[in-house]
């Protein structure tokens, strides 16, 4: 009696091999296609959140400039992929939030006179562009998030998308808020961004040219500033350090300016001094008190260091609820000859003689206005020391 060969074991083995091949194929497909797609979605969603973070940083920078109060924001540098039992994830997404190299801000008259030092307080005449640059494994169209000149935007290289409006030009006011301090953080964690305000200034000038660092193109700035400036007054050129935005501004313009640092105060802090009203001044010269008699305001300065001299000054602006406000003031050390006459909102005037502020004592400086100042008014005066530093004083009347 013949018995046939039993091939059932071979069938089971072949089936097992086929099943294993199917599993391997399925796993390979999952690892090659499903995992990358899911991770790309994680990275895309993270990028959307960081866009909101960058808008928050921009808003805090401008709020800090406006209020003088320290700000706070966070940037989520990276995120985590979901854990996987068998599949393998690439390294977690990360990013770098940083400022680039400082680049100059230039303010000139249209006749070519450089007035940068006169209109930008604290001697801070450079700014940095702020950026967030992600490192993703799958989402390759993330671009770079940037902030400059009051605008947050998404830079894709050949194009950009605005995330906010602009506050650079409003009517006949230009607001210049440099970011001069260095900041550089990388990783996957969330980092704190703490803007701090420097000194502020407001001046009025006619027929000026303002040049600012930028990464945007001329056509992009024309769109951003549409409704505020004629495109003919806007140009972007390539310089040795990168692109420069140049605005040609005719007629009279108010220039609001003051730096904001990331994590540190740029130059002298805005808060400090007597009753927390006046900024901390260079040379340890602080405004101790002010009194008004008729048309003369007497400012009492306390100098806790060695003798120092104010060599020139100007009155930035004057505010009063009354009519017939003063237009100028003659300045002198009490009992000494007149040093200069300062126009309100005018340019710096040289003092002759200098205002000598004796060390380790108080000195009275008289400002005799052409009209009696209001009891409810106030003004801002900037004095420059012989060291070249500027001291800004807010004076309540």
Strand order of the largest sheet: 9-8-7-6-2-12
DSSP helix fraction: 10-25%
Secondary-structure element series: HEEEEHEEEEEEEEEEEHEEEEEEEEEEEE
Radius of gyration: 31 Å
**CA(first)-CA(last) distance:** 127 Å
Number of strands: 27
Stretches where pLDDT is under 50 for at least 5 consecutive residues are 271-277
Describe this protein's structure.
This protein folds into 2 domains: 46-81 and 91-262, no CATH class; 274-396, Immunoglobulin-like. It has helices at residues 8-67, 116-119, 218-224; strands at residues 73-76, 94-99, 103-104, 106-109, 126-127, 130-135, 144-148, 151-155, 160-162, 169-170, 173-176, 184-187, 190-193, 195-197, 201-214, 234-239, 242-257, 260-262, 285-293, 296-303, 308-319, 328-333, 340-343, 349-357, 361-369, 378-385, 390-396. Helix content is 18%, strand content 42%. The longest helix has 60 residues, at 8-67. Strand 19 and strand 20 form a beta hairpin. The chain is an alpha+beta fold. The protein is elongated and about 115 Å long. It has 3 helices and 27 strands. It has a 6-stranded antiparallel sheet, covered by helices on one side. Strands 4, 10, 11, 15, 16 and 17 form a 6-stranded mixed sheet that branches.
